């Protein structure tokens, strides 16, 4: 059985989202939550794109958590600036990432991280729920 959590720290590159999407797809399939794949990989792509665009050192951490009835995905970065949507012009090419995350997930949010020597960061997270009879995922038993 696959662990109920996966975490990794990394420096984001222009192609990191592709690799992280593959990991998320693999875990969702192993957790028998494949129906969440489209929404979860789209939301993850948007969060990683925000790190690439807005975090100067591009350092981040990904945490995926299986929970009863769904998945929670967290992206923690080193920028203490709150996430924001800048989409005010419908013809603008950017600024819609968080609107997309809100549209395709069941819940999302963020919270600041306490850092060393006054340096902080933030964690942006989303949750996707399994719909229907497969919504109950039994907890993993550990010996």
TrEMBL record:
UniProt keyword annotation of ATP-binding present? yes
> Which CDD domains would you find in this protein's record?
HATPase_RsbW-like
Q: Which residues form the Histidine kinase/HSP90-like ATPase domain?
A: 17-124
KW Transport (keyword) present: no
Domain of life (superkingdom): Bacteria
Please name the GO terms that the record assigns under molecular function: ATP binding; protein serine/threonine kinase activity
Q: Which Pfam families match?
A: HATPase_c_2
Question: Any idea which UniProt keywords this protein has?
Answer: ATP-binding, Kinase, Nucleotide-binding, Serine/threonine-protein kinase, Transferase
Give the protein's recorded name: ATP-binding protein
